[in-house]
Amino acid sequence: MILKNLWSHRRQNGWVFAEIILITVLSFYFIDHFVVTTFDTYFCRPAGEFEKEHLLVGQTGIKDFSPNSSSVGEASLYALRDQIRALPEVQYAGFAGHIIGQGTYNISSYASEADSTRRCGAYMQGFLLHEQFFETQGLTPIEGSPSARVLSEECPEGGVVITRSLAQAIFDSDQVVGRRIVEWDFSDRALQEQGGPVIVSRYTIAGVVEDFRLQQNDRYAYSILTPVIQEYATPQMLIRLKPEADAEAFINHYQTVSVPVGFPDGRSSASLLQAGNHFLYSLQTYKDWLSSWSGNRDYNLTNTLLGILLALFLLNVVLGTLGTFWLQLRKRTEDIGIMRSFGAKRRDIFCMVWGEAALLTLLACIVGQLIWFQFAINMDLSDGLSMSGTGRERNWVEIFWLHYLIICAIQYLILLAVVTLGILVPAWRACRKRPVEALQHL
Question: What are phi and psi of 92, to 5 degrees?
Answer without folding.
Answer: -140, 155
